[in-house]
TrEMBL record:
The keyword Glycoprotein does not apply. Coiled coil: none annotated. One of its GO terms (molecular function) is kinase activity. Residues 447-456 have a biased composition (Basic residues). It comes from Tanacetum coccineum. This is Probable serine/threonine-protein kinase.
Length: 560
């Protein structure tokens, strides 16, 4: 991928993809995740995430709140050498950015902010705000993602640097294209410039008036799997595939976006990676069970959830907690075989292994789906990630070879704006109206609020914080009740509301509702978990600090 907005900056430095993590730095800092690795730009792959599971992570520990990483300069990741640093500053990059993310900007020159006109705020993410803007030099409408830096903390810049490096590695019609970067020598902010996309799949799916046909579902899935195939071939794991990260334009093009949690991987030299990724409803069982050795299967699982969601008209496994999520997975996909437990050696297996086994019931649950979709759903939602195969195999599946075929993207309807953000605004307006009429219909308002809360997929970092709280709670329970080596799974107070939240979609298929399990289903562990977990992974944050905690946790997630 080349230069954006004109000429390339000449460089005698390392190839643009050469990025090697300074392991010592991470060891020193107690960081449980690292990003980076060696790379081979020529092959389009080979950039390796050199993640190291730190002592704290092995013991189940993330940094306690308030403890900050020591940030030493990373000579390979950040410091591109004096010459290049000088060239980058001369080309208009701020010195701080060149110092910390020199590799990510190598060979590019920045655009000036005053060459764009902001039109509207269109989205907001964990560490960014996204604006619709006009490029005054070309007249083109673009999306500007303004990255928030916490006082220019090198860690924040590092996440952004990795996202940029990954985006620069990718070049495919179904992957959002990074068109440039906007900053200036004296600036403290950075904007990523993307082609503008009118919709996201979550927004469309939540729209009360839209129900996808089979050819449309095939069209979206074809594009999603093609984009994933490209990412995986370039050794990139997305690690947060969900509807709101699948952007759509008015020509029917679907593009995978938000590579903030993405990571390079090398299938031949596996390195441990964090399990604290992927939004809860789309998170595969191996991550919920703490896997740090994983691959393309995690994105394929999420794709399977999306395929079934598009056909069902509602999210298929909307868990509110990790425990509930695993429970929903086991109920639908069956509990893992003994052979799998043995082979996978998953860190949380001793805690979450169900006492009773669950039978897989995908075919019965989705009996109203097109028959050709069932083998594909069955493959993508395999409990053992090795059985999920690849995006390439999925694209060759019977689903796409059977009539009615996928429609052409250009034949997809032209929808009115329908971002997940719009759905949120609709909800907020409804909430405001309810608050106004609260006294007249308090009970109705309460019910609707519950539906809304459940209708949103929980981002990975928040959900993972909850997982920690859960593990810690389990450990405490084990201590308190050393005689009892089993406990209810899920806890009774959560199980009472198992099943699908009402109104999680406006056009649900009423026939789809996986069978619930009796409350008495219990999960046990073979050994007390204390033997595996010697310290808290993360401090459960008080609710008043939700936003801070989200960012804090996100930092650790995004860092690996
Ligand atoms: N190219 C684009 N065109 C139009 N809208 C976009 C584009 N990129 C992002 N958005 C909007 O901005 C929102 C936030 O963007 P993005 O997901 O990349 O940010 P983030 O900070 O990484 O978010 P998250 O916390 O969900 O990981 C998206 O959900 C989407 O609605």
């Amino acid at each position: 991928m080349g230069c954006v907005f004109g000429k390339e900056v000449s460089s005698s430095g390392p190839p643009s993809s050469e990025i090697v993590v300074d392991k010592k730095r991470d060891k020193d800092s107690g960081n449980n995740d690292t990003g980076g690795g060696t790379a081979d730009a020529g092959t389009g792959g080979g950039e390796v995430e050199n993640a190291v599971v730190k002592k704290g992570d092995k013991e189940g520990g993330a940094r306690p709140r308030g403890e900050r990483r020591r940030s030493k300069a990373n000579p390979k990741l950040g410091n591109p050498g004096k010459n290049i640093h000088g060239e980058q500053v001369a080309a208009g990059w701020p010195a701080w950015l060149s110092a910390v993310a020199g590799e990510a900007i190598n060979g590019w020159i920045p655009r000036r902010a005053d060459t764009f006109e902001k039109i509207d705020k269109i989205g907001s993410g964990t560490y960014s705000n996204v604006y619709k803007a006009r490029d005054t030099m070309t007249g083109k409408i673009v999306a500007l993602k303004k990255v928030r830096f916490d006082n220019l903390e090198p860690e924040s810049v590092k996440f952004m640097a990795r996202e940029i490096l990954i985006l620069r590695r990718l070049d495919h019609p179904n992957v959002v294209k990074l068109e440039g970067l906007v900053t200036s020598r004296m600036s403290c902010s950075l904007y990523l410039v993307f082609e503008y996309m009118e919709h996201d799949l979550a927004g469309l799916a939540a729209s009360p008036t839209i129900k996808f046909t089979e050819p449309q579902v095939k069209c979206y899935m074809n594009q999603l799997l093609s984009g994933l195939e490209h990412c995986h071939n370039r050794h990139v794991l997305h690690r947060d595939i969900k509807g709101s990260n699948l952007l759509l334009d008015n020509t029917g093009s679907l593009k995978i976006a938000d590579f903030g949690l993405a990571s390079f991987f090398d299938p031949n030299h596996k390195q441990p990676m964090t399990s604290r990724v992927v939004t809860l409803w789309y998170r595969p069982p191996e991550l919920l069970l703490g896997a740090t050795d994983y691959g393309v299967g995690i994105d394929l699982w999420s794709a399977g959830c999306i395929l079934a969601e598009l056909l069902a008209g509602k999210p298929i496994m909307p868990g509110r907690t990790e425990v509930e999520q695993l429970h929903k997975i086991f109920k639908l996909c069956g509990s893992p075989s003994e052979a799998y437990w043995k082979k996978s050696k998953l860190p949380h297996a001793t805690i979450f292994k169900p006492q009773q086994s669950y039978k897989r019931c995908i075919a019965e649950t989705f009996k109203n789906f097109p028959p050709s979709s069932l083998p594909l759903i069955d493959t993508l939602l395999a409990i053992d990630p090795a059985d999920r195969q690849t995006a390439t195999a999925a694209l060759r599946s019977e689903f796409f070879m059977t009539k009615p075929y996928a429609c052409d993207p250009s034949s997809l309807p032209k929808y009115p704006p329908s971002k997940e953000m719009d759905a949120k605004l609709r909800d907020e307006e409804a909430r405001r109206l309810r608050a106004a009429g609260k006294n007249t219909n308090a009970e109705g308002a309460k019910k609707t609020r519950t539906r809304e809360r459940h209708a949103r997929a929980m981002p990975a970092p928040e959900a993972n914080a909850e997982l920690q709280a859960n593990i810690d709670r389990r450990r405490l329970i084990t201590h308190a009740n050393a005689k009892s080596k089993s406990e209810k799974f899920p806890p009774p107070h959560q199980d009472g509301t198992l099943g699908y939240p009402l109104g999680s979609s406006h056009h649900m298929d009423p026939t789809f509702d996986p069978p619930d399990v009796p409350f008495s289903s219990s999960f046990s562990y073979a050994k007390p978990p204390i033997q595996n977990w010697s310290g808290p992974l993360a401090e459960p944050a008080p609710t008043g600090h939700r936003q801070r905690r989200k960012k804090h946790n996100d930092s650790s997630s995004k860092n690996n």
